[in-house]
Amino acid sequence: MFIEKCFWNAIFIYQALGRRLFMIYKSQYRTKVGFHCGLGCFRNYCHYRGIDLEEEEIFFIGNGFFLSYQEFQIPEGMFFTLSMDIFESLFSFCRQYDVSFIDGEFVNEAEAMSLLKNGISKDRCLSINIAPIACNYRSVLLGPEKMAQPCHSAVGNTHFVNPIGLNAEETEIFISDSCVPSFHSIPYHGWANFYDIKKGWGKANFEFFIFEEQFWKRLAGCIRDIDKQRVLMEKFMSGLTGFLNAPDCSENQYTGIKALFKIHRMFQTIDHFPNRNQLVRFFFREWVNESVTYHYYTLAVLKKVLPQSGLESEIQELISKWEQWLLQMLKSSFNNQIKSIRTLTYKLEILIDKEITTYTKIMRICEVLL
Fold first, then answer.
1. Is the pLDDT assigned to residue 193 strictly greater than 80?
2. Do 253 and 206 lie in a common domain?
3. Is 54 left (phi over 0), alpha (psi -120 to 50) or beta?
4. Are residues 41 and 131 in the same domain?
5. What is the total count of domains within the chain?
6. CA 289, CA 284: separation in Å to the nearest integer?
7. Three-class SS string for 57-119?
8. 42 and 133 housed in the same domain
9. Statement to judge: residues 244 and 186 lie in one domain
10. Rounded to an integer, what distance in angstroms lies between the CA atom of residue 258 and that of residue 69?
11. Could you tell me if 237 and 279 lie in one domain?
12. How far is residue 60's CA from residue 53's CA, in Å, rounded to a whole number?
């Protein structure tokens, strides 16, 4: 009788849980806050497999510290791209340590669903790219009043997450998101509506990246065999040197600190562009989503390698000033405040000078202490 009662209690609990399939999400998988969706996905999975690896290490060792600006003409007027090689740094890192991966898209939804279910059931390192429409699970953390605020990630862009569980009815999917779309990154580790995620993934052409099975065994050995801190600092210094001493520019293409000077020159004449508001919003999205991330990664390196240098506060101040400037410029653009835009353009020059001063100081101290 007692055994029978226990059996039916177990059945009741099983049904009450919605017959969820307890996969990777129920293990020791944790979602740690990050600053880039793709690197955060890979880092969280590596932690789950016992590999001591952080986003900033992937970024710098993968040669991601490369800022580039390129402008071109579109029917609406001049346009540009401003980017840091963050995603490419992940793939470069993997190639350095012989980790195979596939980065692709699906045309057929059935094939995409097959990959998704197979990846979840086999505990694979799988990340899917979803459109912002699918990120409504962030309201659990932010509340509805903050859902419309500018985001640190995925504003107008797509956004990578790790799917790590699926219930039997296929109505809910367990999501690991290290930087939920919001101006300041926060993680999400929980259930989301499967239909919304599938729809958002479809709008991003069912893009995904998946790593070879059991890659983590070889990667763990590689990480143990190297002096990770030495390699990190070598790549950090190399990237920093390239950033501050950018080579001569080709036509309409600028790199490193020269890319920031070019942005400043663009803002000096931006009130003459018919697509001014579009340019400002695009700059905000590009700079916040991609490039300002390197400040956070630099801060993480300084905390780890030079905790007594006093440089952390200077980077934190730089981050704060950039965020304040970006929000003010975005507000001025939306309200069509030309005078305010001109004032902020002058402040941008001061901010770039501070950027140069701060990173030059970091490089000199690193050269002396390391």
1. yes
2. no
3. beta
4. yes
5. 2
6. 8
7. HHHHHCCCCCEEEEEEEECCEEEEEEEECHHHHHHHHHHHCCCCEEEECCCCHHHHHHHHHHH
8. yes
9. no
10. 9
11. yes
12. 12
Domain membership of residue 12 (yes or no) is: no
Residue 172 domain boundaries: 18-50+101-211
Residues 6+ apart with CB under 8 A from 27: 48, 123
In this predicted model, which residue has the larger pLDDT, 4 or 317?
317
Task: Identify whether residues 134 and 275 lie together within a single domain.
Answer: no
Which pLDDT value is given to residue 366? 86
Whether 360 is in a domain gets the answer yes
Question: The whole model's pTM is what?
Answer: 0.86
Tokens of 172: 């809910």
The label of the residue with tokens 């018919």 reads 274
Q: How many residues does the chain have?
A: 370
Write down the residue that tokens 């942005």 correspond to: 263
Distance of CA 323 to the CA centre of its chain: 16
Contact, 170 vs 194, CB < 8 A? yes
Q: What are phi and psi of 104, to 5 degrees?
A: -155, -175
State how far the alpha carbon of 220 is from the alpha carbons of 30, 51, 52, 211, in Å. Answer: 18, 6, 8, 14
Q: What's the pLDDT at 146?
A: 41
In a domain, 4, yes or no: no
Q: For residues 200-220, give the mean pLDDT.
A: 94
pLDDT at 316 over 60: yes
In a domain, 218, yes or no: no
Whether the CB-CB separation of 63 and 89 falls below 8 Å is answered with yes
342 shares a domain with 246: yes
